[in-house]
Amino acid sequence: GAVVSQHPSWVICKSGTSVKIECRSLDFQATTMFWYRQFPKQSLMLMATSNEGSKATYEQGVEKDKFLINHASLTLSTLTVTSAHPEDSSFYICSARDHRGNTIYFGEGSWLTVV
Amino acid sequence: SQQGEEDPQALSIQEGENATMNCSYKTSINNLQWYRQNSGRGLVHLILIRSNEREKHSGRLRVTLDTSKKSSSLLITASRAADTASYFCATVRNSGNTPLVFGKGTRLSVIA
Q1: What is the pLDDT of residues A85-112, one digit of tens each?
Q2: What one-character-per-residue DSSP string does chain A give?
Q3: Which among A95, A102, A107 has CB closest to B31?
Q4: B33: distance to nearest CA of chain A, Å?
């Protein structure tokens, strides 16, 4: 079945550095991908909608200069957390909509710890 | 951007019992979906119910949708310890490329 691959699964970085998380749709084309973050024991909060070939649409309160999103191909979207701070430590999950229908598939998520 | 609320927020039952989780949402929807998430993992799609459907079954899962009350329920019958997870409802407001908007989730614990 359709699979969305997210990499890395977990990453530890120092404050002030940048971290890139990749989201790939493995056997379908995804013109739209979505990025969420999730704090422990909380729900998923939508950060941005990533559209292939155009600028991402960010939710209110999400800093676009801090969370850079690039959707350069129909199978890959990346989220770069720039100048990371400890409060950015969270679980980040991407999802991709299969262009053939309404089904949305989720990646396994990426744990980011900023020390 | 959260759309809805699930209740209860936490539910603890014995293995073999049924578990019922409810979800309410605020805006009109195209469909409603239920997902499961094991601790620290990604989401697994369980079932999708369209706005013109009232009930849907999949194995031990039964989902209902009441658009007049803007609510849905997920019933897991004959629960197993492996059903322990968080369950989220998510809605799509319109067709097209709108994202899923998640409720707060119910943490289900099934005790063997």
Answers
A1: 999 999 999 999 887 766 788 999 999 9
A2: ---EEEE-SEEEE-TT--EEEEEEESSS--SEEEEEEE-TTS-EEEEEEEETTS--EEPTT--TTTEEEEEEETTEEEEEE-S--GGG-EEEEEEEE-TTSS-EEE---EEEEE-
A3: A102
A4: 10
